[in-house]
Amino acid sequence: MSTLSLAVRDSSTMLRRNLLHARRYPSLTLNLLLTPIMLLLLFVYIFGDTMSAGIGGGDRSDYIAYLVPGLLLMTIGSTTIGTAVSVSNDMTEGIIARFRTMAIHRGSVLVGHVVGSVLQSVVSVVLVGAVGVAIGFRSTDATALEWLAAFGLLVLFATALTWIAVGMGLISPNAEAASNNAMPLIFLPLISSAFVPVDAMPGWFQPIAEYQPFTPAIETLRGLLLGTEIGNNGWLAVAWCVGLAALGYRWSTAKFNADPK
Known about the structure:
By secondary structure, the protein is mainly alpha-helical. The protein has helices at about 5-25, 25-45, 50-55, 60-90, 95-100, 110-135, 145-170, 175-180, 185-190, 205-210, 215-225, 235-255. It has 12 helices and no strands.
């Protein structure tokens, strides 16, 4: 078989392995999925009227429209924590050492984790989006092309964060450490424009919220789904995604290919 055929075959096998693990042990994915859903329900039904007035909206439905795009991207960050834990488990439980002795394409192990995680992220986003629609989120003005662009952004963002999560899993000595190392993937959306506009934050804090990957991605997704102004956020979001994906890929492959100590 050619190198490409071998890589595709082995990556497909590793993908099936990771999807089977996710299906047989769904508790981790479900626990991580509950975080954005609980935040969505909390901010809509407890703080919705007050937050809507704060952003200049008329009622709770205005805040639902503002909130859902940010929670969709937060869902991706939450889901990828499971990837870091899964990779760390593989590294510490000895299966990777076994894979190293087998005639398989070496990169297929990481590719299987990444593709599996991206698919789980897409499913999680659909579930959170369904909850958003159930409580009143609507995107009636978005065209088919804008929906396609929004889906592409979500997949690209999931790919970028997944490669970062893989690297975090590889450097972690155990699953607990992997979960802790990946916590910024949930923390960063909390200090972005997901819940309130950046210009409503204290002046000293605005650069922290603005110059990070989640804010331009959130503003781009809002623009695509709700017709708000995107400006330079689209290019910034793509640049962040490509940069993080490249960094995560180089970091992960370097750590994975290094000789075990």
